[in-house]
Amino acid sequence: MDIKELERMSEMHELGELFAAIWGRPGEPPIDSSTLQALSHSGNYVVGAYSGKRMVGGLIGWLGGHPPDDLHLHSHILGVVPDTETRGVGFELKQHQRMWCLDRGVPSIEWTFDPLVRRNAYFNLAKLGADAVEYLVDFYGPMDDGINTGDESDRLLVRWNLRSEKAVAAAAGRHVEPRPDAGAMLVQVPEDIVAIRRDDPTHARRLRREVREALGGAMSRGYHVTGFTRAFEYVLSPD
Can you list the domains of the chain with their CATH numbers? Predict the structure, then answer.
């Protein structure tokens, strides 16, 4: 797998089309090619992953925060073609992004994800070693792509401290399954919320509200997320 920074406008078009296909909106990418070009040219992170000459994944982000005390990269979109050939590409892209930041003195990366999508929760919290820091209610407002249509856009903000013990261990392929201690709280999410949205939107909306109340409510009361289990559970512990 070859991962490289993108610079040419033709590459931006290709990346935009890839994102559009992944998000179920052919011809309507979630970010347009001119914006991708501007991000790349201004020194931000725009990369593609290639299997031979075929682009199979992409990852973009831009510098944010309030330097010098809070400099970080905001990682906005990660997309990988869903087939057996591309297993592990998402992890490779995030590790490439990690090294890109460390080489430039950027200590952390932040991004959001849908807390109901269990594979993303496990990837971000367990496989990468990121920390959940804030529950954001309906963060993007209504979304009409092929993944989020009909649901509220709650998101979990995570911060990846790139030199933390968890991040270093994860980069080496090691991560520790969380062990709930006394006073810990478990919040379970469904196995496949995307399928539930498609087949039973009313049930999907009910699950959204339940997880918002349980996970978001606990975080607002001072609980912090310490991990995500293979049984699709967030583990929260009181401060």
Answer: 2-176 (3.40.630.30)
